[in-house]
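Dear colleagues,

As part of the handover before I leave the project, I'm documenting each prediction I ran so the next person doesn't have to rerun anything. This entry is a single chain, and its sequence is reproduced below.
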Amino acid sequence: MNTSNVPHFSEGSPQFSRVFLESTVYGQSLDALVIACVDVVLIWGDHVLLGQRKQPPRDDWWVIGGRMVHGESPLKAAQRKLQEEAGLTDIKESRLEFIGVLSTRFSERSQPPQHHGLHSINLTYRLKLTDAEGQGIQLDSAEYGRCQWFTLPEISHHLQNSLEMDRALALTVKLSMTEQDTPNS
């Protein structure tokens, strides 16, 4: 399917659930389920913003994003993550461009038992920032240790091609920097 967004169907008026399971119960759930996440690659000119996350499942460089909550459309989840993690408010859905889907299996997670890892399906978008937005970005310090703007060649030299999640991040960024419509996912 070649689409500019992920088709989302919602019957009735969904009740958004912000209920969070206790850590041990959530960990048991992660042992049995694949979770849905959204990732948003922030692009400013020919640069991409990466943040160095502070905790698993990826306590290294990654893009903005995280799990969806019950009742959210992928675009609403992306808007929420942009506001929570990057302070970007009032981003219109039409500015978010769907670029593809990744399946990621991380070796660790925050919830016990941490070594069981986490499997997620990541609906990935890109957002081209205005100059004012790009200059004003500040990532949530509770989530990120630092952030940096990279060009595509800089990212390639910075990541280790031998590491699976570095290759996933490199692919995500590469897809985001192409001007084609939506890649086959």
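Strands lie at 35-44, 47-53, 61-62, 64-67, 97-106, 118-128, 144-150. The chain has five helices and seven strands.

All the best with the project,
I.
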